[in-house]
Amino acid sequence: MALNLYNSLSRSNEIFKPIEENQVTLYTCGPTVYNYPHIGNYRAYIFGDMLKRTLSYLGYKVKHIMNITDIDDKTIRDSIAQEKTLAEFTEFYTEEFYKDVDSLNIIRAEKYTKATDYIDEMVTMIEALIEKGFAYKSEDGSVYFDIAKDAEYGKLSHFTLSDLKENAKGRMANDEYDKENAQDFALWKSWDENDGEVFWETPLGKGRPGWHIECSAMSTAELGDTIDIHTGGVDNMFPHHENEIAQSECATGHPFVKYWMHNEHLMVDGKKMSKSLGNFYTLRDIDKLGITPQAFRYWLYTGNYDTKVNFTIEAVSGAQTALERLYSAYREVLDTDNGIINTEYKDRFTEVLSDNLNTPKAVAILWELVKDTDISSSDKKATMLDFDRVFGFGLDKVSAEKPIEIPVEVSALADARTAARNEKNWAKSDELRDQIKELGYEIKDVEGGYKITKT
After folding, report:
1. Are 156 and 9 in contact (CB under 8 A)?
2. What is the 3-state secondary structure (H, E, C) of 343-381?
């Protein structure tokens, strides 16, 4: 069965044909480690993981590289503000990212490439661009890519330079900017006092790389001049991915990526995430709301990766309930012998996945399987586990032990404690908490309510 994928480059569905038969090279834009990634970032990483799982499920061997951006405007700015070395600052958030990846049951990339480990490769690529006439040095020693020299610039985001505003001339030193500010972008930034102790002495001069060259150099070094698939959020299509294409293809003379795949935006309560609006969430924030990383993953699968989704507490709480029901259904077949994967369900599952990764239909087929009384428990178990190779819900880690049931007495004490807290009667609240503890349970406050666990 042919795998059809939507290619952002051609803006059409295409039958996937890898460069090498049964081998796939995959590059995913990873985090900039200056803070905790937000849930919109994790939509991109979960999408990349689901794509990789699907490719593996269909029999492809996948070589997956994801970058860690540990040098850019933001990492330098915030490390200086916290009076930490760049390495010390970024290493903390890198480790926190890995924890999140594991909590989401994302299969780790074959390699995570830190930008600071590939300075030599970046310098080599920049030197090639200068030699070929696609880049030039400015008065201050920085190096810029000359977008006017690239006849194909804009082919991913589908605009031409003549469509841009008049300010689309000159130079752009900032790593991130919008479409209307398209200008010659920085490949190498000459050192200034704002960089502090962050710089490298290279044939290009004293300085550090621009953001865009990092992914080109790391992808080329690890996967070759041309790769099969590059993923990322739609917000990175311009300028980052557009610039990646320009500098990579002009430097190597070869096509950079065959299939570009972008996940759409994640909105929150119908709006773009913003700290000022109070709708900015990390995984740690939604955990305080009683929403597990796996429930967030499940909720994302109820929408297509290439359509906008709207995060609300109610919707994702519903996904939490549905996932718990799924775990309960799996527990009912957990103790059975190993059965045989049902071919009818597997064929249907494979068909919808092959239709541009249609996860909503895939989830629906999973629930049909769960409710099908004509399939033996052992075969149902085998088929559920087979599907979970793609979903990544962690069914293989589900314990036979059922979730605890909270006694009525404990629930009543918890509700009374909530009432006391609402009245700011902290002494009464502490007293009720101690009573709950004496009964063998612990209560934890989460946003919008509480969570009870057995001690």
Report:
1. yes
2. HHHHHHHHHHHCECCCHHHHHHHHHHHHHCCCCCHHHHH
Give the E-state strand segments of 170-278 in sequence order: 171-172, 184-190, 200-202, 205-209, 227-233, 257-263, 266-268
Rg of the chain, C-alpha, whole Å: 25
Top pLDDT among 158 and 88 is at 88
Paired tokens of 303: 């929408």
- Which of 447, 202, 215 lies closest to 313 in space, CA to CA? 447
Residue 111 above 90 pLDDT?
yes
Q: In Å, what is the CA distance from 18 to each residue of 21, 43, 59, 257, 350?
A: 6, 25, 12, 11, 18
Q: Mark 379-411 as b/e (b = at least 16 C-beta within 10 Å).
A: bbbbbbbbbbebbbbebeeeeeeeeeeeeeebe
The topology (CATH level 3) of 15-263 is Rossmann fold (3.40.50)
What is the distance between the alpha carbons of residues 59 and 25, in angstroms, rounded to a whole number?
Answer: 14
Q: Do β-strands 135-137 and 143-145 pair in parallel, antiparallel, or remain unpaired?
A: antiparallel
Q: pLDDT tens-digit profile of 393-410?
A: 999 998 766 556 678 788
Do residues 267 and 311 lie in contact, with contact meaning Cβ atoms separated by under 8 Å?
A: yes
pTM: 0.86
Beta pairing partners, 135: 145
Superfamily of domain 267-397: Isoleucyl-tRNA Synthetase; Domain 1 (1.10.730.10)
Q: What is the C-alpha separation between 184 and 189, in angstroms, rounded?
A: 13
* Max CA distance (Å), the chain: 77
SS3 of 259-327: EEEEECCEEECCECCCHHHCCCCEHHHHHHCCCCHHHHHHHHHCCCCCCCEEECHHHHHHHHHHHHHHH
Q: How distant, in Å, are the alpha carbons of 415, 419, 445, 454 from that of 432?
A: 10, 11, 13, 16
Measured from the Cβ of residue 271, the count of other Cβ atoms closer than 10 Å reads 10
Backbone region of residue 154 per phi and psi (left: phi > 0; alpha: psi in -120 to 50; beta: other values): left
